Model the fold of this input.
Amino acid sequence: MTAIGHKRAKVGEITLHYAESGAQHEDLILLLHGFPEFWYCWKDQLPKLGEKYHAVAPDMRGYNLSDKPEGVKSYRINHLIGDVIGLADHLGKEKFYLVAHDWGAAIAYAVAMAHPDRVKGLIIMNGPHPYIFAELLNNNEEQIRQSQYMAYFQTPGVEKKMLKDNGNWLLDWTFSKHVENGQMTEDDMNAYRTAWTQPGAMTAMLNYYRASPLVPATEETKGRGSGLDPDKFKVHVPTLILWGDADHALVKDNLKGIEKFIDKVTVKLLSGVTHWVTHEAPELVTEEILDFIAELE
Done:
């Protein structure tokens, strides 16, 4: 397996830190993490992918060692799309494969919709399609219930709770199962704590939620629908969806009707795997990425 290196890229008005493997290879794979992860969630995939491809996992803006622009507006989707395209430009690639999890998946969908000519293939892991998710947040009782954390994360000052006791609350909320079963070591936990406690990082991370128009419906707004135009959310890029079927945050109805929005889509359920697919099924994730890209080449 190839080694993981670290570099920085000037992208627009900010600088992104990224981890990479296999820089000598021609084809580029960008891997986008979610909340509250950082490039490290791809640590098991990068070396293996780097044997055949240039695999690059950035810290998204606001996270870990990347710049943390102030203000909620700095985390709106247009900026997040621009970061991905800007990073690919910095790396000298017109076209690239895009792999993403959670919040990274929301960004990846947006990139694929805005720039289908740039994305050779899309791999989504436990990240909902934006239109389907918006509808479920308005109409699906279970998704509304399980998404209450989204509204909570928009609360002013919630950063203090996230970082309390050296980040133990957030670790317990996210990765307690993985600590218990040995899928996360003390070194892993310390890596996350270090990333979360970078100056300004937690506020920036939460600003993704604060900048998003998506919130679970209240009793007063439930059933009204999102008001979005479904025709504006079509994906014209070959797509693989890997979905841990024991996800605690996203209901399986997020997959219902997905073929109406993606021209060419394959859905694979990962039995017994929760939301944190790269931690729980690292080898399977790597295998699926390689197999899917091989089919497209």
